[in-house]
Design goal:
InterPro entries: AhpD-like (IPR029032). By secondary structure, the chain is mostly helical. The protein is 69% helix and 0% strand.
């Protein structure tokens, strides 16, 4: 198993326990919260990203990319994309 394979396996199991740089962990914490409980996001969540080294452009990009993936996955799920005919 390569290092990339090991990291991918760690991330699938639990991103909070994966061997990641602080900035990557902050980004993943942010997008998981955005995905699972967007209504609970606060200014503090954005400040954590800034504290990890992300500027306004980085925060915006992280937010838009995560939001887009959440949106497009929900559209695909609603339309049954990739699901076998029942």
């Amino acid at each position: 198993m390569s290092l990339d394979d090991e990291l991918a396996a760690e991330l699938r199991r639990d991103h909070t326990r994966a061997n990641l740089p602080d900035a990557d962990r902050a980004m993943l914490d942010f997008v998981v919260k955005l995905t699972e409980a967007p209504h609970t996001h606060t200014r503090e969540d954005v400040e954590k990203l800034r504290g990890a080294g992300f500027d306004d452009v980085g925060v915006s990009q992280i937010t838009m990319i995560a939001a887009f993936f959440n949106y497009i996955n929900r559209v695909a799920d609603a339309l049954g994309v990739g699901k076998p005919d029942e």
